[in-house]
Design a protein that fits this description.
The protein is α/β, with parallel strands linked by helices and about 325 residues long. About 35% of the residues lie in helices and about 20% in strands. The protein contains twelve helices and 13 strands. The strands form three sheets. It has an eight-stranded mixed beta sheet, sandwiched between helices. β12 and β13 form a beta hairpin. α3 packs across α4 and α6 packs parallel to α7. It is globular and about 65 Å long. The two termini are about 30 Å apart.
Length: about 325
């Protein structure tokens, strides 16, 4: 995607939520997008699939997939792509499963939406998918309603639907939200195995840095609707180049170190981009005078690493305490 903008138009005026997002993803690559609540992660995922409706606007930027701009496509053209080559898994899966339809019926609908499979063949495919995502006795489960299944089982059903076709890009938005640690690990292990088997590219949205460290190859840090740093996972955790990235890592360790909690919470505030200057300047402990009037660009630091900070080289080398 290139220079992607999204805004919400309400009675109080237009509120920008995405402010020039640039991300590149290769086939079969796993990318983790991290950032605190309100940074724009979910809006970004929905914008990629053309799921934002008025009063939302995404009229600036491009989302290129196989050389085609998804933002320029009609709703009919996007429907042909959704669930077939680009799929989405969502948090709180029960909210996205129809409580009045049996699980088998819902999977069959997804299978037949993008194929000419007969009803019988679609049910056979549904059973195969449930078996692939580790649901025991899949034939019996086809007759279950969502309320008869656990949260982890429902999330497996969502993943099965997402991979019902030859999905080339899977967008996983907080796929383990509301699940306990053991089930979360099972879901993430399953998802990673499946995307590797299908050579599917994965964008994993998460607030958990540990999840991204374990399951992703690259990480993109989002703040106030902007990507402020991209890096490989190893280089990110050994030498983050943006003060906000260091803040996130510090916050992740705060749960294990009580002495960090107060310092971490003290700087939390609404992540909304200002009209001028760096969005993080008001919270940044190493901000310069120019940071409040000039917005830094996302620029390369080393091969495969980029950050939008005037002091990125110093921060990455840990010559300043961020």
């Amino acid at each position: 995607m290139q220079n992607l903008h999204a805004a919400h138009q309400g009675e109080g005026g237009t509120v920008p939520v995405l402010n020039g997002v640039d991300i590149t993803l290769a086939a079969g690559e796993t990318l983790g997008i991290v950032g605190e609540s309100g940074s724009g992660k979910t809006i970004l995922v929905r914008a990629l699939l053309g799921l934002l409706r008025p009063p939302w606007r995404t009229d600036v930027g491009r989302v290129l997939f196989d050389g085609q701009d998804l933002l320029a496509k009609s709703e009919e053209e996007l429907r042909a792509l959704r669930g077939r080559v680009i799929a989405l898994t969502t948090p709180e899966p029960r909210k996205h499963l129809n409580p009045l339809l049996r699980i088998g019926e819902q999977i069959v609908n997804v299978v037949q939406a993008h194929s000419d499979a007969s009803r019988r063949a679609a049910y056979a495919r549904a059973e195969e998918l449930l078996r692939a995502v580790g649901i025991p006795d899949p034939r019996q489960r086809l007759s279950s309603y969502p309320h008869e299944m656990s949260g982890g089982m429902c999330q497996r059903v969502i993943i099965a639907m997402a991979l019902a076709h030859s999905t080339r890009l899977l967008l996983a938005d907080e796929p383990t939200a509301g699940l306990d640690v053991t089930i979360s690990r099972q879901i993430l292990d399953l998802m990673l195995d499946l995307v590797r088997d299908f050579d599917t590219a994965l964008i994993l949205v998460s607030r958990d840095l540990g999840v991204v460290a374990h399951y992703c190859e690259r990480v993109a840090v989002m703040y106030a609707g902007q990507i402020v740093e991209t890096a490989s996972v190893p280089s990110f955790f050994t030498g983050a180049a943006h003060p906000y990235s260091r803040h996130l890592i510090r916050a992740a360790t705060a749960a294990r170190d009580a002495s960090l909690v107060e310092a971490t919470i003290a700087r939390e505030s609404s992540a909304r981009a200002p009209d001028a200057g760096c969005a993080y300047a008001v919270r940044c402990p190493v901000a310069l005078a120019r940071c409040r009037s000039e917005r830094p660009r996302l620029e390369s630091l080393t091969e495969g690493r980029a950050a939008s900070c005037f002091r990125k080289a110093e921060v990455a080398a840990a010559r300043v305490e961020a």
